[in-house]
Design goal:
It is a single chain. This protein is α/β, with parallel strands linked by helices and 223 residues long. It folds into 2 domains: 138 residues, HAD superfamily/HAD-like (Rossmann fold, 3-Layer(aba) Sandwich), CATH 3.40.50.1000; 73 residues. The chain is 50% helix and 15% strand. It is built from 10 helices and 7 strands. A 7-stranded parallel sheet has the order 1-7-6-5-2-3-4, with helices on both faces. β5, α9 and β6 form a beta-alpha-beta unit. α2 runs antiparallel to α3, α3 runs antiparallel to α4 and α8 crosses α9.
Length: 223
């Protein structure tokens, strides 16, 4: 068993930087991107669209730039040119941004963010969503006050995490990454940072890991 019982009072004593992924951790919006990938690839046939969706759901922390390049090369034998990649990403953004803005929040996360703000703890967002879109989404949802910084792609989650730790002068023992995908877990492991998995999708991954992590289905019982 590799999942520790969460003790929030102990965490608040030791953690000074809370690093949140966005989709699936703050907003219940993972399904929105799944629908968008399916919409874009369905013209190539049901089989291709299903392969894209399967990979997307299994690699939640990869950026869309990486995914489009991979999917076209692996499933369509097409080497994307930069201008074609830009068009795909623009179309994807048009499909996604408004729906993400309108998505429900993960249960209890608003109260937890209020709690961290009142406790004078630093919180940042570290997402695979392009940074410009991420800033728009967070601002429109009225969440900007909770975060001292917002990090998105194309910079990797590991590099973003490293930048945040350096900027706010915190050690790995003072940092907690809250994520729902393998890429979030890998970023935390790369820098030896504490990890709190959120949601059912990551539970089995944590349960079968050799390392020890925290886990919650959502934030309703965290405070």
């Amino acid at each position: 068993m590799s999942i520790n019982k969460l003790n929030i009072s102990e965490l608040l004593e030791t953690v000074n930087l809370f690093v949140f992924d966005f989709d699936g951790v703050i907003a219940d919006s993972v399904h929105v991107k799944t629908q968008a990938f399916h919409e874009i690839y369905k013209k190539f046939g049901k089989d291709i669209a299903q392969k894209v969706v399967h990979h997307h759901l299994s690699n939640g922390g990869m950026s869309r730039f990486e995914k489009f390049t991979l999917y076209h090369h692996k499933f369509l034998n097409i080497q994307l040119q930069e201008k074609d990649l830009d068009i795909l990403c623009t179309n994807f953004a048009d499909l996604v941004v408004r729906k993400v803005i309108d998505s429900d929040e993960i249960k209890g996360v608003g109260a937890f963010l209020d709690y961290l703000l009142l406790s004078r703890k630093k919180s940042v967002v570290n997402s695979a969503t392009p940074e410009k879109e991420l800033l728009e989404i967070i601002s429109t949802r009225g969440l900007s006050k909770y975060f001292v910084d917002i990090y998105g792609s194309p910079t990797s989650k590991t590099e973003n995490l490293k930048l945040a730790m350096k900027k706010y002068n915190v050690s790995n023992k003072e940092t907690l990454f809250l994520g729902d995908a393998t890429a979030d877990l890998e970023a935390a492991d790369n820098l030896n940072v504490k990890f709190l998995g959120i949601g059912k999708e990551i539970y089995e991954i944590l349960l079968n890991s050799k390392n020890e992590y925290f886990y919650l289905e959502d934030f309703r019982n965290i405070i």
